[in-house]
Amino acid sequence: MSDFFPGQRWISDGETELGLGTILTVDARSVTVLFTASQETRTYSVRQAPLTRVVFGPGDRIDTADGYQLSVERVEEQDGCVIYHGQDTDGEPLTIGEAKLSDSMRFHQAQDRLLTGQVDRNDWFELRYRSLHHHQRLARSPALGLAGPRIDLIAHQLYIADEVSRRQSPRVLLADEVGLGKTIEAGLILHRLLLTGRASRALILVPASLTHQWLIELLRRFSLSVTLLDEAQSEAFGDDNPFDSGQCILASQQWLFANPHRQRQAEACEWDLLIVDEAHHLDWSPQTTGPGYACIERLSQRIAGLLLLTATPEQMGLESHFARLRLLDPDRYHDLDRFRAEENGYAAVAEAIEALARLPGDAADRDRLGAVIDDADGEALAATLLDPESDEAQRDSARRQLREQLLDRHGTGRVMFRNSRRHVGGFPERHLHVSELPLPDAYRDQFDELRDGNDHMAAQLSAADLGPREARLYPEAAYRALDDARHDGAGDAWWRFDSRVDWLIERLETAAAAHKTLVIVHRRQTAVELAEALRVRAGIAAPVFHEALSLVERDRAAAAFAEDEDGCQVLICSEIGSEGRNFQFCHHLVMFDLPWHPDLLEQRIGRLDRIGQLHPIDIHVPMLSPSPAGVLLRWYRDGLDAFSAPHAAGGDVLEALGDALLEALDDDSSLDALIEETRTFNDARLAEREAGRNRLLEWNACRPERADAVISAVVEQDNDKALPRYVDQALDIFGVDSRDLGNGLMHLAPGSHMLDSLPGLAQGDDGFTATYSRARALARDDIQRLSWEHPLVSALLERVLESSLGNTALALLRHPSIPGGRLMVELVFRTHCPAPKSLQLGRFLPDTGIRVLLDESGTNLSDKVTFSGLSRNLQRVKKGVARELLKSRHDQLRALLRQGEREAERELPTLVENAQQQMRDTLDRELARLKALAARNDAIREDELKSLADERHALDTAIESATLRLDAVRVIVTVDNEQR
Ligand SMILES: Nc1ncnc2c1ncn2[C@@H]1O[C@H](COP(=O)(O)OP(=O)(O)OP(=O)(O)O)[C@@H](O)[C@H]1O
Fold first, then answer.
1. 244 annotated binding-site participant
2. pLDDT at 852
3. Residue ranges of the Helicase ATP-binding domain (predicted)?
4. Domains parsed from the chain with CATH numbers
5. Is the ipTM of this complex over 0.85?
């Protein structure tokens, strides 16, 4: 006789997405089912209907068609159908017939799926269990967000990224010397904030010349796809706000700063982080505010996180440095004079820190320390350090803590990070080659007239935007301007007689100079004309790179230069156009002229002298002699020693002696004295800085112990053997084809039965080549590096954990010592703790699995039989057989599920307590540190303290509310050895 009765509820085994079906009619041969939610009707043979009866039991919660939820207490059968008795969510009694169950009820939860006979493959269940395990392990890793990017593990960068991204809404100045990796640091910070949910939207503003470089670095190194916005694209959005078109928006500063309408649109959006590259260009003085500065100031008042990047924070002097700090924290940096005065106190702190290594012992060192310690905490540590009873371990610990405290509490260390080449080490040597060249007559006459104070000429030059300094240092520009004024530009082009052009052509044509050469020229027009000169006079194709080119033109020029084989031998760049660009694949730099500011000189060399440079840098200066530029060259070389390495005090020296230097351009009779004075001033200023601020900055910019800890955590993940195992299994299950290419490489491509499209692997894509090796991925841009943070791997983890994939399974266990016909259940419970993503609860209580293994009698075997041990001995069962087995053991399974829940619940309080303890330890420590800091160091913002305290409270409440849910269940049936 048929089991079917009209009105009963069943689900389709093969098409669960149809929802809950109702039997419409039954006869001797066929049964017809209506799936109301999907408006489908199906007729099946009674004998082979792929249907499973849906019957709930006491304790189950079910949705009714009227939108109630019923908690079942009793089940009654009437005329082949079921009536459920129980309570609604308000505790009111409720009774419904099964016909009144919600049609769209879905069976995603493990228990529902199991009891309705939906079982997945065993390997899916295993993948799910492993996904949960790895997810919870990784969420707590100190490497989280820093392990995935394709970068070399460089200590100072990882330290900064770790330190900054831990903070509530970080606001810092990344001011490492040129080419030490500020972009990488900003990328790491952004990557970690996005991955951990601390940030979800970022606005990145960079000079137009760097937009593409940023786009590519973020994609290649960090797998972050950002939206590059310009005016043409913005217009396509019509009235909609184009800044809402992506999670991370990258845009050119020049475009935004010139466009008040777009600025208002940017301000109207919600952002968590603002990144501003080459931030020294933002003009500010107590009297005036430039448009770029004003734009960033308005944005920075609305956006909690702010990263300003500049290699030359003091390029425009201390005042301009102050201007950037003021953007980061206007409350702290509101008084320029006070800021100046503070700097004087840094030497005493630096001395005290150095004294720590020598203590205890010397009375003078004790005094040095005593002079800067002014709280009970510090005094207690100092007492331990000085106590003759203390052992070496205690002293070391006190020393370390005191050092941390002092560094934390004094100076700009919290808001500014500046690493120097000297400190980081490993950079190539620099060699200066000066070629003295004859001064053309036309220039000689010009210089003479300038020196004689020809007013008419000065007026003509000034009309062409050439001040006295520019007219002397860039004679070709002055010549062009005067020629325009005199002959309407009909005279000879300057490059026909300028001996620097002859020199350059000869250099480029000689075999010895067959390597790539970067030529930097101060003025844009000169750069363009120099390229023309090379083409016309020598047939040399030299792409030009300057600020007025379109993005595409600029990138085309840089790409032509970068290409290995067919690329151009030379690239001509203007000063501003080349700033921030990566040209470390070349090691010959020609300075066609010289910039006035030492920071610009360093910026030029920094194009080549960057991380990744493998050769000594050859700096060539073709020098017209005699000329004002020759004076400047001597001043740079003999006074500042500016070509051999960066010297932080160059800006200060120029500020003090700039007027004298300007005079010397015309009359070098006192140049020797000026050079001497420059040296003395420079040495004194450097010594002063070394004694104070620079040392504090340096120590603050990288704390090796912390950096080492982060690097170890990253390396541990790099070497994690579980990753390839997990990825292999997941790719196989998701239907991705993986082909071993040898040499640690593999090619991944969408398989014909791929379950779902995955990042980089949509159906029809060619796929990509990947490796687990950091070194291999760094050596080749075209290979992706698989890590736990790679978008594909993250997507695999997420897809498994956010779907029902593998949350039920049934397997057979054949074991000589276990009799057949017994039932076991392996239950995996998962903590559930709703909290905003930005709280980053996962640091303390990520979704955590609790595994419970019960035998038929309810005995807990979890500790005796491990997951892997059991998995190894299990065998598959056909789905149909599994379903029948489950049907026949419904009641027993229900009882075991409840028992399992009780067992898991017993473990929850310990889990919660541990998580709370860990959270309190971490946040209380941080809070105490911030409070202590705030008492002395105004760099700690009031809102930072408050938001940390709020965060602690919110985390405490969230962890407290943790509950458990059944995430997955596997039924295991034992079979006798001879049974099949
Ligand atoms: N950890 C790293 N691994 C691999 N490459 C790196 C790393 N750090 C920096 N680089 C490379 O070194 C070069 C300089 O780095 P980056 O552009 O971040 O420096 P920067 O300090 O921003 O430079 P600038 O002062 O010119 O703006 C880039 O080509 C970058 O890709």
1. no
2. 95
3. 163-331
4. 9-106 (2.30.30.930), 125-140+712-789 (3.30.360.80), 155-341 (3.40.50.10810), 346-409 (no CATH), 432-440+498-685 (3.40.50.300), 441-493 (no CATH), 808-975 (no CATH)
5. yes
Is 179 labelled as part of a ligand binding site? Answer: yes
Question: Euclidean distance between the first and final Cα of the chain, in Å?
Answer: 29
Amino acid at 893: L
758 Cβ closer than 6 Å to some ligand 1 atom = no
Q: Distance (Å, rounded) from C-alpha 845 to C-alpha 840? A: 9
For residue 351 and ligand 1, the question of a CB distance below 6 A is answered with: no
Residue 1 has a pLDDT of 40
Query: Residue 140 in contact with residue 842, Cβ under 8 Å?
Result: yes
CB 298 within 8 A of CB 264: no
- Give the pTM: 0.80
d(CA 611, ligand 1 centre) in Å:
6
CB of 795 closer than 6 angstroms to any ligand 1 atom: no
Query: What is the distance in A from the centroid of ligand 1 to the CA of 161?
Result: 14
Answer positive or negative: Cα dihedral of 503, 506, 508, 510. Answer: negative
Alpha-carbon Rg for the chain, nearest whole angstrom, is 36
Is residue 177 in contact with ligand 1, taking CB distance under 6 Å?
A: no
Ligand 1 atom, smallest distance to 581 CA: 26
| Integer CA distances (angstroms), 223 to 205, 218, 226, 276, 900, in order | 19, 6, 9, 20, 42
| Residue 608 CB–ligand 1 contact under 6 Å | no
Q: What is the pLDDT of residues 763-782, one digit of tens each?
A: 777 889 999 999 888 877 78
For residue 438, which phi and psi values (nearest 5 degrees)?
A: -65, 145
